[in-house]
Amino acid sequence: MFFEVTSEKVKKLLEGLQAGKAPGPDGLSPLLLSKAADALAEPVAMLFRKSLDEGRIPEEWRHARVTPIFKKGSKLSANNYRPVSLTCILCKVMETLVREQLIKHLQENDLITDKQHGFVQGRSCVTQLLDVLDTWTQILDEGGTVDAVYMDFKKAFDSVPHRRLVLKTEAHGIGGRILAWIADFLSERRQCVVVNGVQSSEAEVTSGIPQGSVLGPMLFVLYINDLPNVVANYVRIFADDTKVYTRSDVEGAPQTLQKDLDSLQDWSQQWLMNFHPEKCHVLKLGNKRSEAIYYMTGTDASGEARSIALEESDFEKDLGVYVDNNLSFNKHVALSAAKANRVMGVIRRSFDYLTVEVFLQLYKSLVRPILEYGHAVWQPQHKTLCQEVERVQRRATKLISSLKDKPYSERLATLKLPCLEHRRKRGDMIEVYKYLHGFYKTERPQFSFFAGRDTRGSTLKLIKPRYRLNVRGNFFSERVVNTWNSLPDQVVTAPSVNAFKARLDAHWKDLPSVFDPECY
């Protein structure tokens, strides 16, 4: 791969550094580097070129300060903390340049599995969830059942062996200077742990990808890129989050899913990426759910291997969305509303008086994203759930003392805050636009029912599919059809996402439902 480091590229990256970020172990702050980008661009580019030509990184770049971030469970167990590495800023800039070349090579040669949605352009948490739920809701609508196993790697990023990672990177056609640089980047690393300002002594890092690094996630994606090859059933991955699933009412399906679990464990042992069977769960969907019990091999207290029956769960937190075994998303709505209310409580207690400007900034940045994350996935089926979400915004707008006695719709109009139901409908239309115009690189959901695929034409009308169950009718690709087809050609054929948003807002600006949820 040809890789040229220019001062222009370096200057742009230095200028884009976030000034408020902490300096790395070398003490160089992003603020200093960004302010002095003009003067530093050429000498830094020379440093990068020399590093790349020699396939070596400066010694200081090998050091990291690790901060443990609590995940869940007991705070007394080290296993429940995720390590985040603070590395040198200039190293991160160099990593960015290397990552750009990796991504370009992998995309041009179509080397990343389509089952992976993490750190891949045109895919995301939402595209993966819609992909999965498209299959699940179709199976349920046909009267079938689904068994899904949520896999859990044991310290995934920390387990990756460096030598095998380099071999897998080379197997993807990455060689020469870049491969040598990556190999040196991974080797002879040292780190210390910082907790409450207290720093430990340094220790050598013999395996793993630095969490918090720029290049690390892409290298991890490369390392597990062949994992889907050992699975016969459905498999989807987001970074290390892996789930395998099957239509379980088909004869022999549970047995093939068990074989997939066995194959995944064989893969994990070969590549030293062990699973954590106690944290692997089974989610079963459908009216007549299978009675199959799935097993993985684990170890007992003495270290002896033993067969462990995987725990069946009523719900799983899947890429930030709580997916329950009825696909009702009741739990997700309840937990999201409760979390948003807690944040609003902190805001209320922190300010004696809120101006409109300060309120809008706090609400839009801290509260509303909680209520809207992944909405295309969990759009409420029932009015009561819509009201539960809307109730948070209804309470929040009363924090403006001059508005608290006015009707909700009037408060929203004054603040120019659309009701959340309208925003979800608008968000759905934006997602449809992105799917139809090729912004997402994903298998599903497939709008195989619409006529006029040619986006240069005057229409992009969708055909309303048939369904039996509400769980399918409420799914994204079904529920959006009527609203999308009601939009004029000028809106749906907009030349860009921003143009589509502007035209959509202009088309809907006079609708009473923009500020009044009772219209829905």
From TrEMBL:
Reverse transcriptase domain segment(s): 50-301
A Pfam entry, by short name: RVT_1
Protein name per its UniProtKB record: Reverse transcriptase domain-containing protein
InterPro entries given in the database record: DNA/RNA_pol_sf, RT_dom
Species annotation: Littorina saxatilis
TM region(s), chain numbering: none
Source taxon at top rank: Eukaryota
SUPFAM superfamilies: DNA/RNA polymerases
